[in-house]
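Database export, one record per block. Field names are fixed; values are copied verbatim from the stored entry.
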Amino acid sequence: MIDQAKQESRETRWTFTDSIGSFEWRNPVPVNELYFPVCNEAGMMASVTPSLHGDATTGQHTFLRLPLVMADLHNTRSARNFWIYNEELGAYSITGHSARQLAEIYKSENPVQTTVKGAFLAHTVVREDTQAGILSEALIFSPATEDKIEILRFKITNLSLATIRFVPTTAFPLYGRSADSLRDHNHWTSLAHRMELEPFGIIVKPEIHHDEAGHRPNDTSYFVIAIGGDGEKPVGQFPTVREFVGNSNFDWPEAVVRNLAPDQVSSCRRDGMEAVGAIRFAAKSLHPGESCEYIVIEGVTEEKSSVTRCIQRYGSAQKVEQALREAVAYWQQRVRRIDFKTGDHHFDRWMHWVALQPILRKIYGNSFLPHFDYGKGGRGWRDLWQDCLALLLQNPDEMKASLVANFGGVRLDGSNATIIRRELGEFAADRNKISRVWMDHGVWPYFTLKLYIDQTGDIGVILEERTYWKDHQIRRAKVQDIEWKPSDGFVQRTSEGVPYRGSILEHILVQHLTCFFNVGHHNNMRLEDADWNDLLDMANQKGETVPFSAFYGWNLISISDLLLKYKEVSAAEDIELFEELLLLTGLDSSVDYDSPFAKRERLELYYSRVEMKLSGRKRAVPIESLARNLKQMGEWVLEHIRDKEWIESQTGLGFFNGYYNNDGERVDGDCEDGPRMNLTAQTFAIMSGAASDQQVQRSFQAAKAILKDPNTGGYRLTTPLGPNRWNFGRGFAVAYGEKETGGAFNHMIVMFLNGLYRRGYVREAYEVFSTIYRLANDTEKTKIYPGIPEYISSEGQGKYHYLSGSASWLLMTVLTQMFGVRGEYGDLVLQPRLVKEQFDAEGNASARAFFLGKRIEVTYRNPGQFDYGEYAIKRIEFNGRPLTVNREDGKKAKVDKQVVEVALLNNADNVITVDLESCR
């Protein structure tokens, strides 16, 4: 039997330690897939584990540390380390990562207690080794400055009753080149390294950037410097891996094990060798209870002078402490721009980590963390727009320029460049240089822009103009423009060679109208090379997607409403579009929407008019007529899905079909191995309004019955797909229960609960939310730090943490749907959809956010502890003053934008209280 004290010392859960969301986790070291992001907005992107593994980079071609994928976190010996040599202990790693210490981890009598402490964004590992008599702390963070570095502070305390004397040595392996070189000329590129030893460390600068398509001069340097906490200088270095490890390895380096003295004059060649920041300090004595500190700074720079600047800025314990406070304060204010207070304080803190994730995606893109072993930097098109959902809620004024600029990635055929570079308005066609189209890409820009318009009232943004993207791909990547060449530029030009600029509204119409006419045999929009589900990538001839047909249809109706609102506020009668686009508007000639052939024929005619050069001529079209036609199109789509894609299963359940495969066959329904169903189809049928109220209820019940994982309780994205007939996608090859193939895919689950909230099914939505929340916080199974991962496996483990689009959707859903604090064309809407267990003991629940550029705090007061459906809005006060508002059946109140602007204070939290009363 293990005694209680020892049992508690092996905790498998982290706990929050303050109101913001700092946390502790005791003894997580055996969790070998645990990592934490270390970054700043200057461009440092790193990860760290409890054993200080993890890589660091500023981009695909500038890796400071060895590029890693998830398995490398426990396979590689190339980790950050800090060694001491002591006559009694021998070689001892402060991080616990030595051959001898690693062998002790799983022993029942392991004398080391490890505690991980996490803050925004700082990671500390505390190791208490009672046998060795050493308490150590290893802190890592990136400063909130322009320096692309990570700072580590190692603190060593003598726990014993005797004086200890030791020799300290850092060990930070330097990779210093492109990730491409890992399997392409790895040794050769190391030969291009040139080393420069400095009093505090080492600088490595490759002679060239190796690229057989065209080598380029290299301006990037990589460095490691170390300083004693009191400013102490090192006494020497072992700058090459050969000198440091000898005939051993990083887990048992000869320079430490044999306590070798560093060469003052090199006895071997150092240029062209693999480098390591192995920096030796003079021997140190600590009396009982005494401590000492050492600082290690490693980074990437284009200016070697920045190394000296780093020493000046961070070269003492006090300066590091100040930089830490500033960095934590910076991240805390970022994540607290949206803040919640409920009866569940754990939820309130957890949401701060969720709020962090869209910011991390802006920094990392979809790369450079251990799970994200695809991509080479930059953000994908879909990811960009969905991340903006949360970012513009946090500060819409900052996002406008980005929103407008990114419409410049749209092509005239309705497709788009798929990669967004760091520079505003810069794009790439595809990260892997493949000609392909994700058909869902057209829905996200408008959906995001509409949220911006609702939150700000800036409806005039639709008339701002942008160019169109142009490259060799035309007709949605089915044909190549053989006359185009890169030297022509990536901007669509007119027949006269002038860059063409069109309104944002025009771009949106191009995206939606091309998809409306691009249908398959069953009159749903074509799947093309995939939709949101990347694994459905082998049905580009006859494949069709029902869920994203619904999304496009919903957007078309919304665009119609937007046009009429614009007409109302601007008094405009017409709006300009390039004349070729009128072929798709139905204004010049109509098309039989029931005929897939007629639709495709009209689309081909449009392609033939725009595929090479655009006339550049614009025509004024009546807003009211255009809005009417768009609404008819959208309603046609939703009615078609409601009537044609509903499945009555032999099980007695009912749900929506999701797809048609490359043989033109319906994918979902009753099969020999049971009913086949996917969550995506239910989500967008519900959210779009395609589903009737009865269909909403029945598809929700079907999802519970068919898609809930009996092991975890999470909603799986799909049932098993059946035999692989090579006619649908690579998802057939994925083991069921992982990723999009049967994993509890949080991104879609959050969209599912969003749709339920929008349709007024609050208890059902909260039930779905509770599964996400419970699973993400079941640390014993998920084995992740706080936040929401991309998916939960069938074993309950959280996968693809931090860079998941589910975070943006969850933050948006909690604020705008659960708490019901949102805008509608700049008017403030208050529509609480909270259940009674979400209110605190006094009956209060509040949300802090930004609206019309001002900070607001909305508090719902429910002293009667009424459940949703039992309460109605009684009274609203702005900063202590009662307001007369438009109340819709007591569940929803709307405050006109003009009233809000008058009531809001400029430089303070604006307190809005909403009193709830019984509606029974």
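Remark 1: The mean pLDDT is 92.
Remark 2: The longest strand covers residues 291-301.
End of record.
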